[in-house]
Amino acid sequence: MGQPVRKLLSNGSWNLLGGLLLAALMVIPDVSEAARNKRPGTTRNKLRTVCSKIIDLPSTMIYKSIASHHITDARARSTSFIGTYAAPDISSACLQVYDGKGNLVHKMGLYQKGFGWRWRFYGGYPCGDFKTAARVAADAEANTGSPAIYIKTSSSQCVKIVNANRCYNSAGC
């Protein structure tokens, strides 16, 4: 211990030094992992790396937490993402689905193009992971505090689904 510090401690001035140190620590910004993830534009926000453009679900797309009643195979128990003929085409045969922090929480496989729809993807179809919508929503919520998911539809764009365990733009749920 250096001479000035030893002298400071011996003459009873430690309380002043301790108080100054405590005050300095109180103004240091929070740089915890949680704080870094909340800061927009940081490399910790993986969602912006995966989805540089995020759009709300347009009326030309349908998201279903459960497949239509006439479907009885593995597709019936998982999610559906369906595009009308007015929806833009999706070139991928496997869609990645992310939570609000950019964690992969679900996969959906292309079932078919045409036959009344531009495209139809199901979580219960290869390359899907066969998760239920409730499981996808729970995973997203456990990671982020929100059941919102983001379906990657192109190299840079994702479609936001506010709650993975609900249906949108469909009368059949």
Entry keywords:
alpha+beta, 2 domains
Summarize the structure.
The chain has helices spanning 3-10, 14-26, 33-38, 46-50, 133-144, and strands spanning 53-56, 61-64, 80-83, 94-98, 104-114, 117-122, 149-152, 157-161.
Description:
With 173 residues, the chain is an alpha+beta fold. The longest helix has 13 residues, at 14-26. The radius of gyration is 25 Å and the shape is globular. An 8-stranded mixed β-sheet has the order 1-8-7-4-5-6-3-2. The protein is built from 5 helices and 8 strands. The chain has 2 domains: 3-30, no CATH class; 45-161, no CATH class.
Name the beta content range: 15-25%
Distance between the termini: 72 Å
The overall average pLDDT, rounded, is 82
Q: If helices are DSSP runs of H or I spanning 4 or more residues, what is the number of helices?
A: 5
Which segments are poorly predicted (pLDDT under 50) over 5 or more consecutive residues? Answer: 4-9, 13-43
Number of strands: 8
Oligomer: single chain
How would you spell out the order of helices and strands? HHHHEEEEEEHEE
The overall number of domains is 2
Instruction: Give the strand order of the largest sheet, numbering strands 1, 2, ... along the chain.
Output: 1-8-7-4-5-6-3-2
| Major sheet | 8 strands, mixed
Q: Structural class of the helix and strand makeup?
A: alpha+beta
The helix content, as a percent range, equals 25-40%
Radius of gyration: 25 Å
Shape: globular
